[in-house]
Design goal:
Length: 132
């Protein structure tokens, strides 16, 4: 977490499973959900999910991801295998921008224009009726 400069809550569903061989498979979900709240004076700025995945890939491929574990009384150092990061999903979709406020503004503007035109027309109609 410290190397990636992320909050621990961005990693979810961590599963450690020993394979039939000597490998230990670790599966986790990296959430792309930055916090909505935090200290106002120091807002949290975290990198995007794609940046984190590329940074984690670089760390793993350089042999920089090492874990120390204790098995009984013996200390064990676990190293990640190069090119072992398997990314299940990478979204390349661009987020759609909402035009909701523009549509609402258009509706409000048309409503106000309609009320003004209706008021002016009704004023002239009542004026002609009053003269007769």
């Amino acid at each position: 977490m410290h190397t990636l400069s992320i909050r621990p809550i961005r990693i979810s569903h961590l599963v450690v499973d020993q394979d039939d061989t000597n490998d230990i498979l670790i599966t986790f979900t990296l959430l792309d959900a930055p916090p909505r709240t935090g200290p106002v004076e120091v807002p949290l700025l975290e990198p995007s999910l794609d940046t984190l995945i590329s940074r984690l890939t670089e760390i793993i491929n350089n042999g920089g991801l090492i874990f120390r574990a204790k098995s009984g009384t013996k200390d064990v150092i676990l190293r990640t295998r190069i090119n072992s990061l398997n990314v299940a999903h990478r979204s390349k979709e661009e987020k759609m921008r909402s035009s909701g406020p523009l549509i609402i503004g258009l509706w409000i503007g048309c409503s106000i224009a309609g009320l003004l035109i209706g008021g002016i027309v009704s004023f002239f109609i009542f004026e002609k009726l009053a003269k007769k």
